[in-house]
Design the sequence.
């Protein structure tokens, strides 16, 4: 730290250097003053131009161009070679926020490392982290999130965001943007699907994932999601300028997702013109419009039109620009020297330190799912290198590292086989096989073979070979549900399609339209039809499914089904047989199976199956029959229903696609050089039948995630094994009573009772008793990853705040800390509980509901056949009946000596009239009043209706029962 005189001289020098410029370029002035100075110098048109993602330069003021949005989920993406860390799911699986902060710092450094050359796509506004909760493992973007738990997600996102933006008290290394707000877990029809969120689940679950990083100023803004939330597009969610900004202490720069503004007038059909749409987004709290790629013309025109028509004011524009300039100023952009992070150079990218960090993170993320004795009596893992003469490394992912859509380019690759071979060294021999068939495809009519090329760039696929030479041979990788990829035996490149011809020149499947997918469609016995699968598993993205056929010159293209060529499949090599032979001769077999991130679920493509690919499952079973000492490594982006493997395979290991050091990290774990301590961050289910529909967002009512799931999981939340054992002492409390605004410390002694040093993740769960409302079965409220030498002990202390036990009270629209007991559970997972204790909570009792005051209909306790909908396009929520005899419940209402009148604000778009009845006790209980609801002609046209109440006194559960489709925004019973 510089001395006070030195700091003063630095400020004087900075000011002296800035005298020839403008005040906004003076580092000695407060940021707010600098922003106001620059804002005042901009013309109206210049200000509007800054509201697009691609902000142009303002040469007359010396302001450079600026771009929002560099993808950085687990390293820099789309900017060339950079350090690739484990997928976000893997980062969270470390349960190590200190480590993840270091990862964030490394990614932030690498973003800064490109600042001097500014390649296309570069910027210091980083679009990370993703905190959308993993409430359903079928979500295509599961790999991008951290956990199904909001607390764990909050801790990890805070750590990563803090690392990205750096430790300086005033300046930012980078400006991270948290995404996607809100409740975005569906890719199918993602811009038109509606996430219906009752108040409790919205506040306690979905919003809770965003609050920690925002409240700690660990991120500088939010990105909106594509979906609708309670009937209103997230792009115009008024919470952006309300709750979201209130959570943060610093000004935020909020952005839309790519082309989301156009959805408002497109698929969502929410506004008639883009001027109306962009005006609404701006007023809702959007500062930067990500739209039409680099073409800002439409956005500028729309906002200019909106201003001229009075839909927005210049002060609305100024507010958004102020947010933008505030972040740019904090990045040091307007400082003469670029600020305190301005000197970071490109040398940090893929530096030795970052390589070591990638390896450390990859191995800390690995989860040991199972480790049971194999024949011989001892657990298969860890492997003993001194005793192994031969190891068979098998499977479709043994020799390949796959990257995902938001991954950077790997600077180098250590595959699982390479990592194991290097670790084993000269002590033993590594053999193996991908375990996939190598085939040739012969035109059943002409006898010509499909043939590629043997050079690095392959060749155009033709029907030209008269014999199945190497260039006519392809390895068939099975990714499940009939989808395969074809990898050329001649050059190890995948066969792909560029829109005109097929060529074996692809490093791996990828791209927005994944054009390396095929289906070998059986027809007439051994003769198969090769179908181009395109982007979707059933149809080509651009229309009906298409098939392969050669033109007159032999070049293969796409045709309709009726014109398709029939090919005979000739098996050159039986992959399973080859793998079995290698496994039979080995001391141990390691099968590396899993998923391909561009195929098995990704952005815009949800999963429809959670099983292993059929071919991979068959391979594992065959290898296990040949060698009972089989280890299965699952390398995937999400949970899988590996029930057979769990029951039969002695050792199971899971990792995400973990980047460049995957093989080294796996070897560290398999050979016991590092004791595994990764933990699952979401439930692994036994079957898809354990899950409700993908669009069911109400986790409380639907019993979703470990918080409410009542079934038996395959692997529970927080699960992960070790090569050593840990004993927990009884949990102790600093106080047996918890009062509002207070806290208690839970202490537990943990002892490593095994013979190996290792890490344990100590987890604190809470279960409330006697609540007015349905509560989680248990809820994570603290954890710590501790490292213990064999035989050593430590005391883990976890702080529990009163706020951690509060929940949303729908009766009064605020959080409540209820009086009663809380059971505190300490354990190694949500089901492996090692100790319990009870805490007395001195809070309050939720009083009976008072419906004499105007009550929002959306604040119900339970429901059937209704959806929450937008009361107006600007703000507010209402209840909309979507079924006849739909109802909403308001529990434990005190009607006193008698309520005499029922009044409601209602809307009915349909013709005719319906009935809204007030019933006591049940949806079929006694009717104490009802009103006729006539057509108002529009879903947003509300009117007040009233009816006399009879016999409405005492304490009852009150039901509003709808005869048919209508909306209710508020009501009272007086």
Sequence:
């Amino acid at each position: 730290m510089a001395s006070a005189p030195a700091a003063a001289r630095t400020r004087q020098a900075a000011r002296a250097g800035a005298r020839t410029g403008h005040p906004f370029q003076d580092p000695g002035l407060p940021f707010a003053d600098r922003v106001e100075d620059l804002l005042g110098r901009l013309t109206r048109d210049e200000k509007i131009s800054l509201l697009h993602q691609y902000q142009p330069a303002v040469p007359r003021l010396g302001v450079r161009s600026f771009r929002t949005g560099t993808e950085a989920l687990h390293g820099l993406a789309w900017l060339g070679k950079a350090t690739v860390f484990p997928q976000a799911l893997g980062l969270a699986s470390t349960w190590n926020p200190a480590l993840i902060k270091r990862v964030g710092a490394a990614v932030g450094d690498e973003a800064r490392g490109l600042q001097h050359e500014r390649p296309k796509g570069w910027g210091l506004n980083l679009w990370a982290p993703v905190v959308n909760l993993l409430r359903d493992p079928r979500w295509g973007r599961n790999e991008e999130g951290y956990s199904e738990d909001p607390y764990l997600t909050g801790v990890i996102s805070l750590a990563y965001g803090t690392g990205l933006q750096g430790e300086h008290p005033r300046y930012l290394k980078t400006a991270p943007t948290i995404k996607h707000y809100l409740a975005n877990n569906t890719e199918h029809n993602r811009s038109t699907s509606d996430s219906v969120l009752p108040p409790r689940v919205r506040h306690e679950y979905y919003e809770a994932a965003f609050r920690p990083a925002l409240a700690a100023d660990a991120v500088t803004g939010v990105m909106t999601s594509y979906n609708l939330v309670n009937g209103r597009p997230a792009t115009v969610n008024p919470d952006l300028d309300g709750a979201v900004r209130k959570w943060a202490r610093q000004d935020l720069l909020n952005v839309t997702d790519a082309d989301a503004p156009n959805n408002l007038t497109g698929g969502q059909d929410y506004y008639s013109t883009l001027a109306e749409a962009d005006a609404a987004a701006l007023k809702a709290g959007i500062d930067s419009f990500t739209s039409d790629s680099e073409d800002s013309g439409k956005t500028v025109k729309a906002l200019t039109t909106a201003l001229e028509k009075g839909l927005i004011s210049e002060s609305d524009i100024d507010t958004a620009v102020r947010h933008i300039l505030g972040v740019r100023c904090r990045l040091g952009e307007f400082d003469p020297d670029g600020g305190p992070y301005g000197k970071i150079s490109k040398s940090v990218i893929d530096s030795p330190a970052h390589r070591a960090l990638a390896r450390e993170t990859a191995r800390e993320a690995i989860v040991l799912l199972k480790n049971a004795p194999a024949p011989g009596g001892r657990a298969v893992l860890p492997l003993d290198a001194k005793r192994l003469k031969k190891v068979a490394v098998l499977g479709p992912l043994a020799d390949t590292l796959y990257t995902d859509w938001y991954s950077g380019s790997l600077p180098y690759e250590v595959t699982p086989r390479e990592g194991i071979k290097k670790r084993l060294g000269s002590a033993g021999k590594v053999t193996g096989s991908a375990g996939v068939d190598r085939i040739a495809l012969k035109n059943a009519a002409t006898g010509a073979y499909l043939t590629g090329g043997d050079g690095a760039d392959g060749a155009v696929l033709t029907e030209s070979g008269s014999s199945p030479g190497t260039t006519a041979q392809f390895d068939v990788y099975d990714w499940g549900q009939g989808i395969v990829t074809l990898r050329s035996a001649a050059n190890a490149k995948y066969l792909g399609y560029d829109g005109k011809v097929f060529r074996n020149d692809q490093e791996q499947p990828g791209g927005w339209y994944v054009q390396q997918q095929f289906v070998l469609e059986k027809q007439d016995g051994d003769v198969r039809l090769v179908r181009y699968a395109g982007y979707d598993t059933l149809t080509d993205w651009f229309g009906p499914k298409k098939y392969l056929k050669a033109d007159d010159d032999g070049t293969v293209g796409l045709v309709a089904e009726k014109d398709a060529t029939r090919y005979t499949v000739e098996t050159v090599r039986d992959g399973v047989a080859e793998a079995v032979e290698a496994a039979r001769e080995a001391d141990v077999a390691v099968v590396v199976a899993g998923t391909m991130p561009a195929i098995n679920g990704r952005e815009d493509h949800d999963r429809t199956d959670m099983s292993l690919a059929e071919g991979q499952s068959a391979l594992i079973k065959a290898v296990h029959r040949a060698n009972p000492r089989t280890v299965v490594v699952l390398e995937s982006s999400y949970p899988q229903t590996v029930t057979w493997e769990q029951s039969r395979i002695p050792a199971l290991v899971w990792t995400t696609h973990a980047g460049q050091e995957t093989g080294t990290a796996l070897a560290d774990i398999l050979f016991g050089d590092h004791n595994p301590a990764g933990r699952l961050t979401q439930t692994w289910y036994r079957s898809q039948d354990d899950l409700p529909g993908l669009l069911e967002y109400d986790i409380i009512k639907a019993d979703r995630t470990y918080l409410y799931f009542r079934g038996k999981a395959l692997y529970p939340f927080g699960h992960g094994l070790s090569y050593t054992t840990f004993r927990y002492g009884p949990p102790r409390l600093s106080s047996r009573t918890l009062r509002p605004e207070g806290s208690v410390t839970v202490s537990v002694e943990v002892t490593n009772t095994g013979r190996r040093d290792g890490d344990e993740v100590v987890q604190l769960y809470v279960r409330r008793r006697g609540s007015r409302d349905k509560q989680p079965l248990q809820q994570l409220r603290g954890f710590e990853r501790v490292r213990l030498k064999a035989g050593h002990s430590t005391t883990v202390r976890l702080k529990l705040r009163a706020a951690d036990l509060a929940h949303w009270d729908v009766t009064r629209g605020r959080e409540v800390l209820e009086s009663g007991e809380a059971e505190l559970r300490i354990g190694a997972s949500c089901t492996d509980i090692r100790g319990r204790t009870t805490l007395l909570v001195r809070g309050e009792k939720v009083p009976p509901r008072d419906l004499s005051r105007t009550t929002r209909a959306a604040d119900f306790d339970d429901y059937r056949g209704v959806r929450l909908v937008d009361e107006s396009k600007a703000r507010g929520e209402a209840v909309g009946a979507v079924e006849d005899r739909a109802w909403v419940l308001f529990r434990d209402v005190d009607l006193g000596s008698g309520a005499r009148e029922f009044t409601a604000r209602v809307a009915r778009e349909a013709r005719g009239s319906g009935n809204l009845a007030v019933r006591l006790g049940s949806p079929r209980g006694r009717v104490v009043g009802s009103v006729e609801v006539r057509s108002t002609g529009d879903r947003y046209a509300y009117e007040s209706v009233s009816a006399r109440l009879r016999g409405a006194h005492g304490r009852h559960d009150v039901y509003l029962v709808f005869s048919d489709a209508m909306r209710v925004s508020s009501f009272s019973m007086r």
Notes: The longest strand covers residues 758-768.
